[in-house]
Amino acid sequence: MTDDSDAADAAAGAGTDPETLADRVADGDRRLYELGDHADAETAATARRLVVERDTGVDLDATGEYTFDAPQAAQSNIENLVGGTQLPVGVAGPVSVRGEATDGEFYLPIATTEGALVASVNRGCSAVSAAGGATVRVTERGMTRAPVFRVDGISEGAAVAEWVEANEDRLAEAAESTTSHGRLQSVTPYVVGDSVFLRFSYDTGDANGMNMATIATRAAAEVVEAETPASLVALSGNLCTDKKPAAINAVEGRGHTVTADVTIPRETVEERFDTTPEAIAEANTRKNLVGSAKAGSLGFNAQAANVVAGVFIATGQDEAHVVEGSNCITTAEARDGVSASDASGGSGKRSTAGELYASVTLASLQVGTVGGGTTLATQSEMLDVLGFAGGGDPVGSNADALAEVIAAGALAGELSLLSALASRHLSSAHEELGR
274 and 227 in one domain? Predict the structure, then answer.
């Protein structure tokens, strides 16, 4: 059976006219989320814009101009689609990266509205590349999901934890039955009174893997409920921890744990940054380490979130994961350099030339090159610019490579901002660029 409005839709050409659809919403015959059932995605989006324009008096012509595929976005990325929001995208670099998943020079795409950011990162990229490039390693990887279960008390909780530790293979079998790519790496129990948390960690290949981990964990949780007295309360118990600042992510990691470092000769520091290794090291210690500790910060860095957010938006990552991505420790040390004659076994004396050693460690960088927003038009283009679009060979190598390049970019951004602070050029740089 069809209602009167469905019959009217059919008489009006299946209700595919945006004005007619907007009228239906105004009359109460349709809801915004139902428009996709009565028209193609483009038409439904146009109708929703009309509804919003009528209700607010705001012209949404700019919002209606976009390049992504509306049917694809409406199916996979967004609900109640009305259009697109555009952000300027700049490129920093190229920056030289020496990683395990990738080795070469890369342009770093950064989507941002913050003037001077790309210029700052670009300056850091120049110095890193002049010094031979950033050495980068992914040291841990694993997307986590941590359900919470109810038990009678700590005795029962301890028994559940013991069962889980003895039956991880059964949980892996259940979890991995839901995915062709995910692999359960570990399950760590935590007993808190009459609550039991199980922190599942998965290798999710080239995908960010959060949804994959959630679906897999649901299957494993059913086995726990069937075989133990534990009763599932919530599939996510916040010990994951997803999209919130958390010390467990800083210690155990989530997504990719990746470290980048570089050693820059004194003359390069002075030429590119107009300061010294000693001044940068002191600024880092007093600002990023002491200042962050006094503030109780979970991130001991200057601006890692700027680079993470900019690259995330440009390449279609889950932008809320910037929370975890900003969980970064920056180190800087002024070192004595070794002259060429010393290195070849000459006098054995240390040179006084000096150099700057700097590193960043991002404990919980969550990235993927398949799924989610990575398939949208402009985001896919930026991944192509990097050379990491789609699945890698071997599986997981593209996501690893993206993590490595982001870490190198974060290192470049840290060096540039620290040097601007050490040389007292930060405000003048913003003034020069008109920000």
Answer: no
